[in-house]
Each structure stands twice: as structure tokens, then as C-alpha cells.
Amino acid sequence: MPKLRLILIVLLSLSASVGGAFLAQSLRSKKPTPPADDTELPTVPAFHLTERSGKSVTNADLTGKVWIASFVFTRCSGTCPAVAATLARLQAELADVPDVRLVTFTIDPDRDTPEELKKYAERYRADPNRWLFLTGPEKEIHALANEGFMMLAKKRPDGKPGDEFDHSTFIVLVDKAGRIHGHFDGIPPQRSTDTEAYEASVKRLKDRVRELAKD
């Protein structure tokens, strides 16, 4: 598993640093293939963070829920609004599935206080009972992204305001036991020729969410 995680992190890092056109298209067009045995799936590490409401939230609080994770920061001037819009879309289109949660982690917790996250959540009409926004120690959240979710979250030493971090734009599907079932595109494609494949990917994600919610 460590070797697999390393390979995925390297690939996702390349995706973020060079635009990821080829990699993103590859992941968009191919349905994730789950292991034959669910026990082989990686598990989300333990975390203890603060929600925009001020309440503490741990990974254990999500046990029994199917959830979709994302990593953004509120000052982001690039892809984060598109990722948040995708989550808002999923919130609406999965409203009939009660045991589903959306969980957004900020990778800029020094600025993204619970108050800032609350304002950000309001922009997307996030249901406080179904869509959580979490903040906490930067080191913990970045480790959670990089090592736990096999994503990329890294501060840019020379980043300009609104562009201070390199980060993945994938959203991650997690089952009721905290096992990761796959990474999906968090932003729509720029080219109209890719729209059909993207919508097929969104449909696969929603179908999989519904399947896992029944288990």
C-alpha cells in the first residue's frame, strides 16, 4: 500500500503542476476499478477538526455515512469555486439519499477560520446538516490530504494572494466504514468535447454513492 500511495501522489502532483490535461482526461474517462475484496481499500486516517459551526468533528462522526471529500481554500482564485459548485450540485442531486455527507477541508486553515468557512458555505447554500466545512492545524490537514486521501496539498513559497497553494481538484468517495472508493473529477472540463465523458463520470459517482448508501 505505501508504494501505491507514493505512485498516486506523484501522479496527482504532476496533474496539479502541469495542468493535468492528459491525466485528468484519463481518470475522467475510465471507471475506477475497485479491488475484488473491499478490505484492500485504503482507510481515511483519524482526524479531529473544527466545523464552521465551532463544533469538533472526527472521522468517527462520519461512520455510518457515505461521504464525498474535497480540499479547497476560500481565497482560491482558480479551481476551488468550480469544485465547490460541483459539491453544491451533488448536494442537490443526492438530496433524496439521507445517509450522504459532503465534507470540505480547507488547506489554508490559518486564514480559513470557522467564521470564514461559514461565509464561504453560505455562497453555495450548503446545508449545515449535510455539508461540513472543516478547519484545524495546517500540518494535520495537509498530511490528511497528501497521505490519507492520496491528494496534493502544498503551500507555494512564492504564491500570490489567492494562489498560495498547489492542490488537487479531485473529489473522493468514502464509504460508511471510512474506506476510500475512488477519486473523481471535481471540476467540469474546459473543452465541450469532454463534457459527455465528464457527465458520465458524475453519473458513475452518484450511482456508486447510492449503492454504498444501501449497504
How would you describe this protein?
The chain is of the alpha+beta class and 215 residues long. The protein has a single domain, classed as Glutaredoxin (3-Layer(aba) Sandwich), CATH 3.40.30. Helices cover 38% and strands 20% of the residues. It is built from 6 helices and 9 strands, in the order H-H-E-E-E-H-E-H-E-H-E-E-E-E-H. It has helices at 2-18, 21-29, 80-93, 114-123, 138-148, 195-214, and strands at residues 48-51, 56-58, 66-72, 100-106, 131-135, 153-155, 165-167, 170-174, 180-185. The strands form 2 sheets. It has a 7-stranded mixed beta sheet with strand order 2-1-5-4-3-8-9, with helices on both faces. The protein has a two-stranded antiparallel ribbon with strand order 6-7. Helix 4 (114-123) links the parallel strand 4 (100-106) and strand 5. Helix 1 packs across helix 2. The longest helix is centred in the last third of the chain and has 20 residues, at 195-214.
